[in-house]
Amino acid sequence: MSPVLETEEHKALRAAVAALGKRYGREYLTKVIAEKGHPDELWSEAAKLGYLGVNLPEEYGGGGGGITELSIVLEELGAAGCPLLMMVVSPAICGTVIARFGTEAQKQEWLPALADGTRTMAFGITEPDAGSNSHRITTTARPADTGGDDGWILTGRKVFISGVDIADTTLIVARTADARTGKLKPALFIVPRDAPGFGRRQIDMELTGAEKQFELTLDDVRLPADALVGDEDAGLLQLFAGLNPERIMTAAFAIGMGRYALSKAVAYARERTVWREPIGAHQAIAHPLAQAHIELELARLMMQKAAHLYDSGDDIGAGEAANMAKYAAAEACVKAVDQSVHTLGGNGLTSEFGLASLITAARVARIAPVSREMILNYVSHQTLGLPKSY
Ligand SMILES: Cc1cc2nc3c(=O)[nH]c(=O)nc-3n(C[C@H](O)[C@H](O)[C@H](O)COP(=O)(O)OP(=O)(O)OC[C@H]3O[C@@H](n4cnc5c(N)ncnc54)[C@H](O)[C@@H]3O)c2cc1C
User: Fold this and answer.
1) For a pocket test of ligand 1, which of 33, 97, 160 has the largest count of ligand atoms closer than 8 A to its C-beta?
2) Who wins on pLDDT, 2 or 140?
3) Is 244 in the pocket of ligand 1 (CB under 6 A)?
4) pLDDT of residue 1
């Protein structure tokens, strides 16, 4: 797949990350998953080479690039068969929010550590009764008003939060009461993994991935005042600043996975011969693979547009493009994986070829962080001006 709309630096970054991905490869991740471990070696090496923090400011140990560069890293690792899902969360959402809105002390404490991979942050917004409708979140943060303590007390529940077991802290979206109106508004809090009252239960998923998902309980979790990221009153703005990178990075995750599956199918279709010619000569096999390639390329174009808008500071324009990119990439990935599995016939379902588990993995991009339907709703309402049904 030849990258377009990229500078020489981008191409060099793509090639270097692809080489790193190739050194680890799918076999590495398969082993990590089988041993219920974490891809620590790859995470550390990617960090050491400057890839994990490529989007973070240089003065805090990052590469000084943007989501454009970070999405290249995730896409190429995915295309090599070893995507790092936590990149969507730790450097992309949490790193962005702290870099843009954190206090000086928060930046000093977190950004160099997120960039060099020594610390990781998870992100928790989803709740059992607030999935697609994040306006319904009920996790609350109230001021701890005892003995001159100006900290916070968090209460609530979260679900499907990835990587809480390995993350040093989780950036939790909670609500604080507006002192004037009493209305609840979102605010972001850094919650350490071992904070008293912060409980987690691993959710059994029918998903083969190195990252685990957790249900969280926040039972009067006491936090210091500086656990609040940025400004209590700018919660929504800060939240949106992190959500666009999340969508763009999910697109990168999906495109990488789609490319990986497609490359396996193409290699197989070139070789596998059951009649006179290899099966790739049959248009019934070749055309759907060609279509999958085209759709992945188109999705990448939209992802590049979204990343470009975001990196140039156009949060509003990036919102629409990031949603469209996530939609296009997830749909292209699901289709590419499905066709790839089919191309391998019975081998598509064997452990030896390892493609069938991607059928489930690809669906993650269709559901999270925002579902296909909610993006179609967004475009219907925001772009086309159609009325709302809910
Ligand atoms: C592997 C994985 C990792 C995740 N990691 C994280 C994480 O790290 N942090 C985090 O905060 N969350 C995480 N999530 C949660 C994810 O963001 C949610 O699953 C997603 O937002 C959908 O919410 P839900 O599952 O509650 O589905 P629901 O909101 O219950 O939706 C169910 C179905 O109804 C449809 N639907 C809902 N409302 C409408 C409507 N108005 N119109 C049309 N259709 C509608 C949806 O499209 C969907 O198909 C993760 C999820 C998964 C699967």
Assistant:
1) 160
2) 140
3) no
4) 41
Contact by Cβ (8 Å): 1, 15: no
213 Cβ inside 6 Å of ligand 1:
yes
CA distances from 88 to 23, 54, 121, 362 (A): 22, 13, 10, 15
The answer on pLDDT for 273 being more than 60 is yes
Check residue 2 and give its pLDDT. 44
- Residue ranges of domains in the chain: 8-120, 122-229, 236-383
Residues in the chain: 390
Rounded CA-CA distance 262/280 in Å is 12
- Cβ of 216 closer than 6 Å to ligand 1, yes or no, is no
What are the tens digits of pLDDT across the range 51-103? 999 999 999 999 999 999 999 999 999 999 999 999 999 999 999 999 999 99
Q: What is the DSSP string of 153-214?
A: EEEEEEEEEETTTT-SEEEEEEEEE-TTT--EEEEEEEEETT-TTEEEEEPP-S---SS-EE
Q: Answer for the pair 372, 331: CB distance below 8 angstroms, yes or no.
A: yes
CATH 2.40.110.10 at 122-229, yes or no: yes
Distance in Å, CA 357 to ligand 1 centroid: 20
Task: Take atom 23 of ligand 1 and give the residue whose Cα is closest.
Answer: 131
CA of 132 to the centre of ligand 1 (A): 5
pTM: 0.96
Domain boundaries 8-120, corresponding CATH code: 1.10.540.10
